[in-house]
Amino acid sequence: METELPPHAGDALSVVDMHTGGEPLRIIRGGYPEVKGDGVLSKRRYVREHLDHLRKVLMYEPRGHYDMYGALVVDSELPEADLGVLFMHNEGYSTMCGHAVIALGRYAVDYKLVKEPRSPETQVNIHCPCGLVRAFVEYSHGRTGAVRFLSVPAFAFATGVTVTVEGFGEVTVDISYGGAFYAFVDAQRFGLDVTASRSRDLVDAATAVTSAVKSQVKLHHPTSDDLAFLYGTILTDGKDDYSSEPTANICVFAEAQVDRSPTGSGVTARVALQYHKGLIQLNQRRTFQSGATGSRFTGKAVEEVECGDFKAVVVEVAGRAFYTGVSCFVQEPDDELTHGFLLKNRLPVWIEHQALKESANCTFHSVHRFR
Ligand SMILES: O=C(O)[C@H]1NCC[C@@H]1O
Predict the structure, then answer these.
(1) Which residue among 67, 70, 117, 282 sits deepest, i.e. has the most Cβ atoms within 10 Å of its Cβ?
(2) Which of 59, 235, 263 is the best mutation target for the ligand 1 pocket, counting ligand atoms within 8 Å of the beta carbon and taking the most?
(3) Is 136:121 a contact under the CB 8 Å cutoff?
(4) Of 97, 128, 251, 307, which is the active-site residue?
(5) Minimum-distance ligand 1 atom for the alpha carbon of 180
């Protein structure tokens, strides 16, 4: 189908839209300028400094929405990578995204970014900012299906850290890394239920925790300072002991953005945490359910590895992604809203004023790190 473009200026941006467990993924296919940089991490810095206006065009309204998520395929410096990728959301560029890896696995096979698809699974090596993630895409009779991926080394960073949370007092959290750092808290601490409470209440509690951890706990990653930041807070149903029943969680990341999926990097971090606490064994698979949509991923720790000083695990996460459409976006020079906008009603007022990102004049807890 040939699409006739309406009046516009500059390059049109073409995308393929997918969703994984309800979480959108807008994959940029064309119209994006060259991304400079020697490697995926330096390309991530480049787009942040030079091309951030295009993230807003594609993620924000009127073309996207507050919770839109995107991926830009880039060249990777790793010989074993089939593709590199940069992730984008309502606040910037994340370092890992499991729901995107699940969608990109299918996309890479369907759009021929890998040479020869193989049955029953085609391996797609995706170089994410956090490192190389190996995806395995079901492939049969020319059709792609479910995807599983093996994470970068994941580890419990600290458990039982008490922070002072605006509006809630002292809250004890665990912090774990699954390609991005998350704080984990049982939603019951706030009198909430991850599957039944109003999203607004879950967002307020999780955002307050994120803000507190960001200002009170200093994070560290053994391989790169670019990875050492808190991406969000995951509220759980507290069901961390092994069970064949699903356990639910909801992830609030970036600027109070709500993941509709069970969160691939969050499942990775949560499995690492459960393994660290001795609650699950290697190869013991658990099912993780999104508190937002009920969609499910599975996750299991498959191998013990080291990551700097940390005892880490490789986690396998599995899920399904689906195509929702293709679009071509344009801009008109006399449209005063063409650059994109967000309704600023998601953050609690006190956080908007205090600015989530402020890190100056913070007192950091020194936390016990696991070796
Ligand atoms: O599945 C994930 O890992 C991602 N979903 C949105 C937030 C995380 O980056």
Answers:
(1) 70
(2) 263
(3) yes
(4) 97
(5) 9
Q: Is the CB of 121 under 6 A from ligand 1?
A: no
Please give the Cα distance from 22 to 103 (Å, whole number).
11
Q: What is the pLDDT of residues 266-307, one digit of tens each?
A: 999 999 999 999 999 999 999 999 999 999 999 999 999 999
Q: Whose CA is nearest to atom 6 of ligand 1?
A: 259
Does residue 335 sit in helix, strand or coil? coil
Q: Give the atom of ligand 1 at the shortest distance from the alpha carbon of 178.
A: 3
Whether the CB of 97 sits within 6 Å of ligand 1: yes
| ipTM, interface predicted TM-score of the complex | 0.99
3-state secondary structure of 150: strand
Q: How far apart are CA 259 and CA 277, in angstroms?
A: 25
Long-range CB contacts for residues 49-58, cutoff 8 Å, separation at least 24:
52/92, 53/339, 54/13, 55/88, 55/92, 55/93, 56/339, 56/340, 57/13, 57/329, 57/331, 57/338, 57/339, 57/340, 58/13, 58/15, 58/26, 58/28, 58/88, 58/329, 58/340
